Amino acid sequence: MEQDFNEEKRYQQAQKKVKEIRGFYQHLTVFILVTILLIVINLMTSPEYLWFIWCIVGWGVGVIFHGLKVFGISPFFNKEWEERKIKEFIDKEKESKKQTWK
């Protein structure tokens, strides 16, 4: 019975991961298509000022962070950071309870 629960949980986690990856690729596809459209519009209307670059940089940063999160390559808030923070909060909670009893 417990093995079935674990299998079901693993399946749900894998399914969630696949949805996250699909979401990233959809985001990337829309980014590429809109970028092409913006480049064409920019070059047709005001080729002397390449404003599309600002759009690409702004949105591109978001796409990069989305990809880093989905594929688990977060240089800032990775699993080790999460574990340290959880331990820090637990330790603070224990300390505050100790001081309350004094």
TrEMBL record:
Keyword Membrane among record annotations: yes
A GO molecular-function descriptor? kinase activity
Keyword terms: Kinase, Membrane, Transferase, Transmembrane, Transmembrane helix
**Membrane spanning residue stretches:** 24-45, 51-77
Q: Which residues form the 2TM domain?
A: 12-90
Claim: Membrane is one of the keywords in the record: yes
Protein name (Swiss-Prot/TrEMBL)? Histidine kinase
Which species expresses this protein natively?
Answer: Flavobacterium frigidimaris
> What taxonomic classification does the UniProt entry list for its organism?
Bacteria, Pseudomonadati, Bacteroidota, Flavobacteriia, Flavobacteriales
